[in-house]
Structures are given as structure tokens and as C-alpha cells.
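Hi team,

As requested, here is the filled-out complex form for the phosphoenolpyruvate run. I kept the field names the same as last time so the parser does not choke. Let me know if anything looks off before we queue the next batch.

— J.
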Amino acid sequence: MTTTTDLDPWPAPRATGPVEATVTLPGSKSLTNRALVLAALAEGPSVVRRALRSRDTTLMARALTALGSHVDTTAEDWTVTPGAFDRAADVDCGLAGTVMRFVPPAAGLSTATVAFDGDPHMRTRPIGEVLTALRGLGVQVEDDGRGSLPFTVHGTGSVPGGRVVIDASASSQFVSALLLAGARYDRGVDIVHEGKPVPSLPHIDMTVAVLREHGVEVDDSDADRWTVAPGPVAPVDHVIEPDLSNAAPFLALAAVSGGTVTVRDWPARTTQAGDALRDILTQLGCSVSLGDEGLTVAGPERLSGIDVDLHDHGELTPAIAALCALAGSPSHLRGVAHIRGHETDRLAALATELDALGADVVEHPDGLSFTPAALHGGVFHTYADHRMAHAGVIVGAAVDGVEVENVATTSKTFPDFAGFWSGLF
Ligand SMILES: O=C(O)C1=C[C@@H](OP(=O)(O)O)[C@@H](O)[C@H](O)C1
Ligand SMILES: C=C(OP(=O)(O)O)C(=O)O
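And here is what came back:
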């Protein structure tokens, strides 16, 4: 008897001609999980419309429910009714950076003990700076001294708050985490970053924007400093934008097939890092236009190589790297040392997997460079990383015989990605 499992290599669909498609994509992970946390800290019920229903957001809903909120995810629009954080809880962070970083500062407000753990790889992702900062703000945190999962927050019902200095060069989420709960701390929070530049700054801008929607007073007028005034968090009726980072493989499909793909509901103004795709795809030689129907990308006959700093939008690196491996001239992707701490060491994983398919790729401490080479088929390993799977299917659309191992790992941020993707060919 033959059995298949989710881990078995999945033959990636090959585009045999230009792909023409218009797609409606699921909601943003980053916006959904911020909306859920702030709704749970608010003074009354909130609605999260077009919430992303995926592993990361389900884990967030469960974590906030475990703390004491009521999160109803049965309908398409989710409702959050805040409740007292008064029960002992075990929080499963899975592989979600947003759950591991955003929930502990909220758990500090609980009157009970909250224990955190996650997937095996999650125990290697950085969190120590947040735990140290929380202790500085008056939260009792117990860990084994390694500054990683598992750890326990012993809530006392209130957090003094105040000023804290943090090195957020490993992840912007360290800052977002402290900002999200800050208004509920007795003295608010005053966060100062000291260290190498903070990556993914648009994600901190997103946190500030969502806080302001909830009526929270935030001052971000000085570089590397953010203050949140103590005060109530107002309930909000959120409408979640489509996930623009998850748009990358779909727009890339137009890029590699010489086709045309439109992503509906692309916001005219947004704090999502994925909006940078408009500029990056233009540099790669695509024609990009934002109109009433959405964002439309038309692929060129041959992609041009690029030299770009992805420090602000590192989560786009896997998809962009796949395009660079297929381009007709050399590329250099820089400024993304921090993505070695993402779902996997993405620079090492991309270099290994693209090299195995014939790419001429060099791994640098903070990026990757590519020289044009003919790619061939083979198994593309994904290291339980949804965006590695995106890189694999992009190459597979352009090259015969690419098989993507554990394509189901895409469920982190996209329900039934493989089914949706196959429907476009
Ligand atoms: O706050 C967020 O929602 C995110 C921030 C970024 O993290 P880093 O700053 O760790 O890159 C980004 O890469 C991640 O996908 C989502
Ligand atoms: C880095 C990512 O996720 P996380 O929220 O787990 O950090 C990502 O989605 O690319």
C-alpha cells in the first residue's frame, strides 16, 4: 500500500505559458495578530473582519482565550470580548514569532501564572531581550537562563512599566511586543533601542498605527525611541488588509511566466512591509500598476538582476531570492542578517536549496548574491518555513521537475496554499 504524508515532496506546478490570474488573498498575519492582542486588552468587545484564519492566528486566538478573553472565531468575522486575565495557562507559540513575543507582555497583566513553549525550532528563536525588558518593567519571568522558550510569566495583576533600554537588532517584534501592552502598564512604557539598526521598521510603524486606532497615545517622533502613555485601550471594528507579503509568490508567478497577475484590494496606503514588492518587482523588470482592480504585475521576457537592501522587509527575501536565481543578470540581496533568526536560518536554507537546483549562489553574513546559471529539477527542502515553500514553488513554476517538501508548512500564514496555487495553472 502506498501512503503519502504532508512531508512528501509535492510536484510544484510548472507554468507552460504566461499565467493570467486575478486573486483575492487571505488577510495579513501581522495585522490580524496585532488586532487580536489589542482587542483582548481593550475596554469592550472588538470585531476583526477578514481575519486571517491560519496556524499563527489560531495560536494567537487560543493564547488570548487561555489568558481569559473570549475570542469567537466561528464566523468569518472574529469577535473578541475581553475578560479578566485570571487563569493559569499554557501558551503554545507554535512557530509564530508574534505569539511568542506579543503575548508575554500581556500575560504580565494576569493574576495567574502563564507558561510558554512552542515547536522545537521556536526554542532557538530569540526572545531573551524581551524577557530582560519585562523584568526591568516589573514583570516576574522565570526561564532556564538561556533567554529562550520555554519560560513562565508569573503575573501579579499589574505591571509598573516605565523606561527600558533594549537591543532590538535581532527583531522588530521585541519593540512591538512591549508597545502593544504598554498602555495597560501603570506608567506606560518608554522604550529606547541601543544596538545595530532595528530591522523591519515598517512593522513597528504598523504597531504604532494599530495602537493609535485603539486610541492609545504613542510618541515615535525620536529615532530608536517609542513611548506609550498609560490609559485605556478603546475597542475597534477592524477590517484586515490582504497579506501583502504573502502576495509575493503570486506576483512572482507573473514575473517568471511572463504573465499578468492582479492581487485585489491592494491598499493605496499601508504599513505592511510587503508593499515594497511594487518597487522590487519593478527593479526586476516587471511592469507594476496600482489601480481600482488591485495591484497588477506583468512579467518581462527575462528578469533583470537587482542589488537591494532588504533590511526593512526581510520577510520578502525567500521569494525575491527565488526570482534572483532565475534572473538573467547578477543580483545581490543585502541587510538581512536577522533573518537567520526567522522560522529557519533563511540565508543558509536558501543558499543550500537553490544551490542544489543548480543556482550559482553565494551566502554572505547578511545576504545572498547570485550569478546567472541554468536551474534544474530536484527536491526543495523547506525546514518547516512557509516562505521557503514559497521560494520552492516560484522556482518550480519556471523549472521542470521541482518538488517541494512539506508544502503544508504554508499553513502558518495561508490556508490551503497548495490548492490555491495549483488552481492558477
Ligand atoms: O511584527 C510582525 O508582525 C513581524 C515583524 C517582522 O519580524 P522581524 O523584525 O523579526 O523580521 C517580520 O519579519 C515578521 O514576519 C512579522
Ligand atoms: C518571520 C516571519 O514570521 P514570524 O511572525 O514567526 O516572525 C515570517 O512570517 O516571515
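Two things worth flagging: The longest strand covers residues 113-117. Residues 96-98, 315, 342-343, 387, 413 surround phosphoenolpyruvate (ligand 2) (CB under 6 Å).

Thanks,
J.
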